[in-house]
Amino acid sequence: ILNTCGHGNCSPLISAASSGKLRLVRLLVEGGAEVNGRNPKGETALLAACKALRGEPAGPETIKLLTYLLQNKADPNAKDRAGRTALMYACMERAGAQVAATLLAAGADPSMEDYSGASALVYAINEQHQPTLKVLMDACQARGRDIIIIATELGVHGGPVTRRYLNVLPSPNISPVSCMSPSDIVLKTGSPNSPEERHYQFV
């Protein structure tokens, strides 16, 4: 019963996690609920908890809930049927830098892509959430990867000016997202010691 999808096609654990009910989550996990069990949408309890934030910065109880799931071997890189991870949803929902840091500390990969080719880095920039983006960039650098954001912004005379940001955030005063179409922003992730280079097109 603990791992069976019932009303709303959610297991009790996934339902409790998406509702932010830490105490119930603890009881279910201690009772044998499968932490990485999935609903028909491919969501795990961790994914559902991040997806349910709905644009609200996560509070202390949410951080405790996510930490508890991760400590009980929740997979931080599990993907739902859209190919999205908990970290991607945290960025999409502007859950805050602390949520991103919690997931990254547990092994979440900031460069993983969903089925549309977008990564958590892409979602963080599209949401113009610089604290979260800084956490993601720091994590990439810690893994030996460089982040280059290439943006075409409006210059002082109204014409386009191309600027490159190497391992730094675009200035909030001249944010490329606010000055141009997101489709014109390209993010390159590559290691200076490797010929590999990955390109992300913002859509």
Automatic annotation (TrEMBL):
**One matching Pfam family, short form?**
Ank_4
Query: Which Gene3D superfamilies would you find in this protein's record?
Result: Ankyrin repeat-containing domain
* PROSITE patterns named in the record: ANK_REP_REGION, ANK_REPEAT
Keyword field: ANK repeat, Repeat
Ranges: ANK repeats:
8-40, 82-115
Family the UniProt entry places it in = Belongs to the ANKRD34 family.
Q: Which PANTHER family match?
A: ANK_REP_REGION DOMAIN-CONTAINING PROTEIN, ANKYRIN REPEAT DOMAIN-CONTAINING PROTEIN 34B-LIKE
- The molecule here is called Uncharacterized protein
